[in-house]
Amino acid sequence: NEIYFEALFGVAPRFPMTFAGLAERARAALAPDVWSYVAGGAGDEHTQRANVAAFERWGLVPRMLVGAKERDLRVDLFGLELASPLFLAPVGVLGLCAPDGHGDLATARAAARTGVPMVASTLSVDPMERVAAEMGGTPGFFQLYTPTDRALAESLVHRAEAAGFKGIVVTLDTWVTGWRPRDLGSGSFPQLRGHCLANYTSDPVFRARLKDPDGDPRGAVMDWVSVFGNPLTWDDLPWLRSLTELPLILKGLCHPEDVRRAKDAGVDGIYCSNHGGRQANGGLPALESLAGAVAAADGLPVLFDSGVRSGADAVKALALGATAVGVGRPYVYGLALGGEEGVVHVLRSLLAEADLLMAVDGYRSLESLREPGALLRC
Ligand code: FNR
User: Fold this and answer.
1) Interface pTM (ipTM) of the complex?
2) 259-276 pLDDT per residue, tens
3) Which residues, 6+ apart, have CB-to-CB distance to 311 below 8 Å?
4) Contact at 8 Å (CB) between 138 and 118?
5) Is 143 touching ligand 1 by the criterion CB < 6 Å?
6) For a pocket test of ligand 1, which of 278, 290, 329 has the largest count of ligand atoms closer than 8 A to its C-beta?
7) 0.95 exceeded by pTM
8) Which numeric CATH code is attached to 16-60+76-371?
9) Where along the chain do its domains lie?
């Protein structure tokens, strides 16, 4: 309504209302290699496209005469009362995407304003302590790329605890970089420009390893490369678990057997995702793994991302059992267009669409979406 009323008074919407529109404008706003890095995926990007297309194979069945005047989209996640079931997925080049070069801070401020939690990436332009400080009362999570150096991993986790993050998300599918033809073709990997390393360059354990701790932080790039790729195995899980009493969530679990093993190993949450098709091509769309992951999680919270482009997509993922739904590229494009305001715009639009859809289709609550017959395969 706000948008229609403003239009009545001649105020044109500042940001595009569709994902395609956001992408088009973001492409023009970003440096070409940053655009390629954000928009691109692995291989010929079949999985990336399939992630999005998968949502079209599911449809909500409208219920009438429900009078769903009020909808309840609140969710309890690890004991945190969240106003909505959306969250900002971790993205490692946010700094490069924002007009002022501090995209992690802008995104954190958008989280503060909307109540939508941010999962802050290890690879941020500003250190996690500064990012956390911008989140206001909205809970945040820290995403860990687990270094091979265990002391450094422990230091990052303990800093996240001290900074007030409410959970640790360990990403499992990125111990090597995916085969991304767009980045390979441009010969540019924006992270290697030396941005996004603040969590390392501000870390006492990392600094102690540097040959020249007071030199240009970009000099640390090679050290970063050497600590980044840790091919974790199930044998590492007890150690990971021992690092923190905060909720521990594993990102990248799609196979039900992996979900069961993770649950047995004492993790608190499952994060079903294929990294937006950036890491491996040829995989199943993440949405198709969701119901199996939810069943195997057997009551453990299941976060989901990969391919969510609209409020309707978020509703479908919730109906398939996701506890909370992550947004990736859409908010990065909003960030590119308008910093904090752009991210707020994307989140508010997704939430408004989801809420309106539930109103029109007669679903008052997230539980009602999960009742048999609410969501069917088209
Ligand atoms: C990511 N993603 C990601 N994930 C993670 O755990 N740590 C990270 O640092 C990053 N970095 C990153 C950079 C960029 C540019 C993108 C687009 C994505 C993956 C992200 O958390 C999420 O899984 C996907 O973005 C979800 O897919 P969609 O919504 O972008 O299709």
Assistant:
1) 1.00
2) 999 999 999 999 999 999
3) 349, 350, 351, 352, 353, 354, 355, 356, 357
4) yes
5) yes
6) 278
7) yes
8) 3.20.20.70
9) 16-60+76-371
